[in-house]
Write a structure and sequence with these properties.
372 residues, alpha+beta, 5-stranded mixed sheet, 24% helix
Amino acid sequence: MLLVDGEPVLSSAAGATSRTVRTLPTFLTSLCACAPVSLILRCPVCLPLQGATGMELVAALAGHPGLRDAADRIKAAPETRISAGQEGAPRHVYVFQREYATVDPARVELVGTDEATTCIGVVIRNNRTGMTSISHMDFPKIVEGGLRQMLELLGDDNAPFDVHLIGGFSDASTKVVRSSGKKHVKQEGYSYPLCCKIVEVLHKSQQQFHLRTFCVLENNTATDSLGNALPVIGGFVVQTSSGVVTPASFDMNSRCPDEVVRRIRVSVSSYDPTWQGRLLETYDTQCDVFQIAPACWMPDWADIASSLNQLSDSEVLMQCSTSPAAEPPHFVENERRIWKYLINNPDWEETFPKYKPRVFHRTNDGNWSRYS
C-alpha cells in the first residue's frame, strides 16, 4: 500500500476518481490506480500503482521535493571515518560489493559500506525491532533475489520498513573520461538500470516500504575540474539503535575480516553458478560471526591475474572499472592485491577446503580471529 502524508491512497480506479490527485509528472497522469502498491514516501507524491516501470518510478522519485531535501541533508552531513582496533570503538559490520548483512542492534552498533561508484547501497530497517539489513548492489540481475535475502531476518511485521537508497550517480551523462589532458572513450550507464530495478522490485513487493533517502543518480552527482561526473557519497554507515544514516568511509583495517578473499569473491562469483541471482552470504546475524561463504574459480584465473598485473595503472582503471574517473586512490592497489592472491593461490580449494565457509569470531579488542 502507498501512503501519502500517513494516509493510504485508494487502490481502485473508481475510488481514485473521487479524490484530488496530488502533483504528478505529466507523463504519469494517464496511468490509472488499479492495484496495491508497496512503496511509501515521507512527503506527498502520487506514483503509479502496480505495473509502473522502474524508469517511471525513478523519474517521479528523483524530482520529489522531500526526497531531494533529504538527499541534500545527507550530502551536507560530515563524513564519519570508521577505524578498527581502537579502544572503545563501536562494534561494526562492513559489507563489500555484492555482499549483504543483516544485523541485530543488541550485538552491532554500526553497519555500513563504501567504495561505491556505480553501485547502490540499500538499507532496509524494521523500526520496531531495529533489525537492519544493508547490501551493496552492483548488477540488476541480483536485485530480486538479493532483496529477498535481505528481508529474511527482518521479521514479518505489518508495519512499513524504512528504506534508504544511497550511491550511484549520473554516469551515463559523460561518455568521455578526461585525465592528464587525454580523452578515453568509456561506455557508461551502470547506475541507472540498477536503480530502476531496485525501485521496481520494492514497488511490486507485498511488504510496505517507507522510502527515507533517495540519494542516487542525479541527486548524488558532482563534477570534477576536468568535467567528469562523480558520486558525492560513496559510502555510509547506519546507527543500528536509531536508524540514522550518515556518509562514511572505512580504513583498510575496518574492511574486515578476510578483505582480499572477499574482494576475490566479487570477481569470481559471476562465474560460480552457486551465486547466480544472489548476494554473497557473509555474516551470521544470530551469532555475530563472519561466515565467508565459499566461491570457486578456475585455475586459469591465475594466468588471467598475471596478465592483468602487467597493465599500467591507467590501463587497470580503464579495463577493470565501471567508472575509471570516479574510483578512489586505492582502487588499483586493491586490484593488484587480488591478482597477487590468485597468482599465489590458483586452486580455490586451498582457500575454501571442501567448499566450506571461512569463519571469523569477534575478539574482545574489536578485531576478528579466524575459527575455521
